[in-house]
Amino acid sequence: MNRTYARIYAVVKRIPKGRVATYGQVAVLARMPRRARQVGYALSALTDQSDIPWHRVVNAKGEISRRKNPIYEDIQRALLKTEKVRFDTAGRINLARFGWQAAASAPKRF
DNA sequence: TTTATGGCTGTCA
DNA sequence: ATGACAGCCATAA
Question: What domains appear along chain A, each with residue ranges and CATH number?
């Protein structure tokens, strides 16, 4: 566990239940713009049980990203449905509705 | 060290 | 809408 991952996890932990954030969004909030891919890497390092709501992170299109082990795609979808997050006919989430408006819950800092 | 491979994303055709 | 590409950079080998 290094500082980079810790920051990413800290941000993911703040995502409210029933909401989702994109990898890029998490990267920005963790003050590491353009490192969306590394966010994905950090999350894949979890896999096991943890208090990190990894399932609340989706890609910029509002879909669940493809990964090596497709099993987790289904698990993620199931977990989100449990939180009342809706998927449209194309299997995507309407980010305008379920996207996390971080500004409202993120600590203010200047 | 170098290469390859990722739970990504914005841009452009 | 879809697909190719180029940036991005941590890990593993």
Answer: 3-100 (1.10.10.10)
